[in-house]
Specification:
It is a single chain. By secondary structure, the chain is of the alpha/beta class. The protein is 47% helix and 15% strand. It has 8 helices and 7 strands; from the N terminus they run αααβββαβαβαβαβα. The strands form 2 sheets. Strands 5-4-1-6-7 form a 5-stranded parallel sheet, sandwiched between helices. Strands 2-3 form a two-stranded antiparallel ribbon. A hairpin with a 4-residue loop joins strand 2 and strand 3.
Length: 215
């Protein structure tokens, strides 16, 4: 029992170190390079699709639902690309597997966030999906009705490999537009000091690695 406890503590300490999170991000998942607005236009992308990353159904400061930081970061990058390319914008996100019936879909919350930011309107809102596979399937159905087949997908770099696999399987020609790379702007010695953000990054990376192996 003591040895098992020590091993557990050592594992948690390692996973909480930025150095380990950085190593996992570089070696556990396929690497996807960032893109530019020019590359999207040169590739004849027809629409930008932002993938949901969760929603806060009760944000008292807004008097209703709001996007958490991870989802908002994706939306902001999608908005930036839409404004610099003048391409139409879509958001894919429902209520998730654990959501209650009647909750506001993440796509609706994203539309509200864009309105507060005076950003571009969403041309498409996909609000039925509960996971990445359904993001791809339902978004493809929505876009293909209007002849849209070449899209840029916006999501975190660690989520991009699995997203590409699902959206290509759904019949879309996908250009990745990753953001939110795992990074650590600190001195080398500090990379071995545990932090909650590094533990979160490690958990995301391990989850995506497992998801790629199971799909």
């Amino acid at each position: 029992p003591v040895a098992a406890g020590l091993l557990t503590c050592a594992g948690l300490w390692l996973l909480s170190c930025p150095a380990v999170a950085l190593w996992l991000s570089l070696h556990l998942l396929p690497q996807v390079a960032p893109t530019t607005a020019k590359a999207l236009l040169d590739g004849r992308v027809q629409a930008i699709v932002v993938l949901g990353g969760g929603v806060e159904q009760r944000a008292p400061e807004y008097g209703g639902p709001n996007l958490p930081p991870e989802s908002m970061a994706r939306l902001l990058y999608g908005m930036y690309l839409a404004q610099t390319t003048q391409l139409p914008l879509a958001y894919s996100g429902g209520v998730g597997w654990g959501g209650d019936n009647g909750q506001t879909s993440e796509a609706q919350v994203a539309a509200q966030a864009l309105a507060r930011l005076h950003g571009p309107k969403l041309r498409w809102q996909e609000g039925q999906s509960r996971d990445t596979r359904e993001n791809a399937r339902f978004t493809a159905q929505l876009l293909q009705r209007e002849g849209i087949t070449r899209v840029a997908i916006v999501t975190h770099a660690w989520h991009m490999p699995r997203s590409l696999r699902q959206f290509e399987a759904a019949g879309l020609d996908v250009t990745p537009a990753p953001m939110g790379y795992v990074q650590a702007d600190m001195q080398a010695v500090l990379l071995w000091l545990p932090s909650s953000s590094a533990l979160r990054d490690s958990m995301w990376l391990l989850k995506e690695w497992l998801g790629l192996r199971l799909t």
